[in-house]
Design the sequence.
């Protein structure tokens, strides 16, 4: 008889798991099982299939006794053949039912987790910028991928295994005690002998696995940092490839040692397990032999004893598995709790119940005594108050960290103000339909983001139904069409990860072409040319100027000519507007703007 396998690390809770053990409530259980409700028909069929598979699975074992008693011992060849054929057919039926059961389990688990992934992705799309700024990207991705993938394992693994083990154990016990209650009880006496060592060795292997996992994380961290586009470039420029290799090799070797140690841990355990798992069958042989030989028990046959030994082995594994139900359930509930934490995150930026959908947005913008903070007690903007008429341009200047980009982020409601109001065409943007608001705002940032696809696909992201002529016209206005036309694949050229195959200026002009396709009522430029060379800057400036002439514009200014062309300049310092006016007025005041002009713009002038 094969010993029961060690379930390394699954038969106990770590200290961290004990500390973070979720509270099991009726509400939590109802919420978990609510995901099964849409698939209740498949669940019932799966349970029936498990019961049928368990019954049919035990029949060949019971027929073995008949084969021995009625076929072999009685020398009845005809009966022997019939029983073997029946056993073979039962075996086929049992496996076919098992295939159906496995398919249903996998199908339900895949669909339930698919539903959860879609729901999670939709929910995360509605989270505010604050959530993404405060959360680790890896943690967000883990919740959407690994955690929900874990739910699939819970449904197709933990839940199904509990049902299967309960049913298999019940069927085995019924068959055992129906054969001979005394021998059944004797066979069950040794069960604790292999259960207790399993937990001890499992814990040891888990400790080694945990340590190995730490080194695996370190290896992955090194790979992620040094083999990324930026990381490999940095290691080359600083000539640190050998140092990084040695760091990787050290962590890798440590992981190898622990993996070997884990594989070898508890080898002595298999010897004792083999002995323990054979004590029960030996006791059944001994007691059964005494009953037949010494006491002449005619109701007990050799076939019965053989069947009981086989049934005993079928009982050991379900018993061992069911002893770990509590651990599996706690881990499963902890997984669901982590996922529900994200589902329960409030949607900070959402449509008002009576959201207004304007027929047309003209583009006038008003900040009405706006206050804002990311964290309570740490104000970022203080009493920001200004107005931009339709078609006019306002430039915002100020030292780094003054709050300029925060002002920009409030307009499309990436965050909501904590005091005051922002109005577009006289309507508080919190009362305006969110999609309508954002469709009418075009933002060009310093760090342009492009998807890893074609130029065409990145342009169509702004307007999915744009024609080729519309794309070309937008790119002409953005001073990028001639460049694209000169590429071998033209508009079907792949831009690479984050647009790495394009220069900064080319990416920026593509982003401007996207904005032109949108034709927004309000344009926002967040230092769009600050990191570019003078030629790229000039091309972008030429693309921007026509846009400024026909749109309401708010610009975090870097280029002096942009500032000079603005209808008004706002000077922001420490979250406040400390000066406002036009260029010459502000220079003459000799304040913050004058200092910025002397340090940043005088050479350009």
Sequence:
């Amino acid at each position: 008889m094969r010993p029961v396998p060690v379930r390394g690390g699954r038969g106990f809770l770590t200290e961290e798991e004990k500390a973070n053990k979720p509270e099991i409530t009726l509400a939590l259980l109802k919420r978990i099982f609510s995901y099964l409700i849409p698939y209740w028909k498949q669940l019932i069929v799966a349970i029936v299939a498990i019961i049928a598979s368990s019954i049919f699975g035990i029949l060949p074992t019971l027929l073995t006794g008949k084969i021995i008693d009625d076929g072999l011992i009685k020398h009845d060849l005809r009966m022997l053949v019939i029983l073997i054929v029946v056993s073979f057919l039962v075996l086929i039926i049992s496996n076919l039912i098992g295939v159906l059961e496995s398919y249903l389990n996998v199908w339900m688990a895949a669909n339930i987790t698919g539903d959860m992934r879609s729901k999670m992705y939709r929910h995360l799309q509605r989270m505010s910028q604050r959530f993404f700024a405060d959360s680790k990207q890896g943690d967000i991705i883990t919740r959407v991928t690994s955690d929900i993938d874990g739910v699939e394992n819970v449904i197709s693994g933990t839940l199904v295994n509990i049902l299967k083990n309960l049913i298999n154990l019940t069927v085995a016990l019924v068959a055992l005690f129906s054969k001979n209650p005394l021998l059944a009880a004797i066979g069950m006496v040794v069960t604790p002998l292999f259960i207790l060592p399993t937990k001890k060795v499992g814990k040891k292997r888990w400790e080694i696995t945990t340590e190995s996992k730490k080194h695996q994380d370190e290896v992955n961290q090194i790979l992620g940092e040094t083999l990324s586009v930026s990381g490999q470039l940095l290691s080359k420029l600083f000539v640190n490839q050998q140092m990084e290799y040695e760091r990787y090799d050290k962590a890798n070797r440590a992981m190898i040692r622990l993996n070997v140690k884990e594989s070898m841990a508890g080898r002595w355990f298999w010897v004792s397990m083999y002995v323990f798992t054979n004590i029960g069958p030996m006791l059944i042989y001994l007691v059964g032999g005494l009953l037949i030989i010494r006491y002449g028990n005619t109701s007990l046959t050799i076939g019965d004893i053989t069947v009981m030994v086989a049934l005993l082995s079928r009982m050991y594994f379900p018993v061992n598995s069911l002893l770990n139900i509590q651990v599996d359930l706690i881990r499963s509930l902890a997984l669901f709790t982590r996922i529900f934490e994200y589902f329960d995150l409030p949607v900070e930026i959402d449509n008002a119940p009576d959201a207004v959908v304007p027929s047309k947005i003209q583009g006038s913008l008003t900040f009405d005594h706006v206050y804002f903070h990311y964290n309570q007690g740490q104000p970022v903007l203080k009493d920001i108050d200004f107005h931009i008429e339709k078609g006019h341009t306002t430039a915002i200047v100020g030292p780094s960290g003054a709050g300029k980009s925060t002002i920009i982020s409030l307009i499309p409601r990436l965050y909501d103000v904590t005091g005051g109001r922002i109005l577009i065409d006289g309507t508080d943007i919190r009362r305006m339909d969110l999609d309508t608001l954002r469709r009418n705002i075009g933002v060009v940032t310093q760090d342009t983001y492009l998807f890893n696809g074609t130029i065409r696909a990145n342009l169509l992201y702004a307007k999915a139904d744009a024609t080729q002529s519309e794309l070309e016209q937008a790119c002409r206005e953005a001073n990028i069409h001639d460049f694209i036309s000169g590429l071998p694949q033209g508009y079907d050229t792949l831009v690479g990860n984050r647009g790495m195959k394009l220069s900064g200026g080319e990416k920026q002009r593509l982003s401007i072409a996207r904005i032109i396709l949108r034709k927004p009522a309000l344009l926002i430029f967040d230092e769009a040319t600050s990191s570019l060379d003078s030629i790229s800057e000039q091309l972008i400036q030429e693309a921007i100027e026509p846009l400024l002439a026909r749109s309401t514009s708010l610009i975090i200014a870097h280029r002096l000519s942009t500032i000079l062309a603005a209808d008004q300049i706002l000077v922001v310092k420490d979250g406040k507007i400390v000066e406002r006016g036009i260029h010459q007025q502000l220079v003459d005041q000799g304040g913050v703007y004058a200092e910025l002009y002397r340090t940043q713009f005088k050479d350009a002038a």
User: Anything to note?
Assistant: Confidence is low (pLDDT under 50) at residues 1-10. The domain at 365-601 is CATH 3.40.50.300 (Rossmann fold). The chain is about 65% helix and 10% strand.
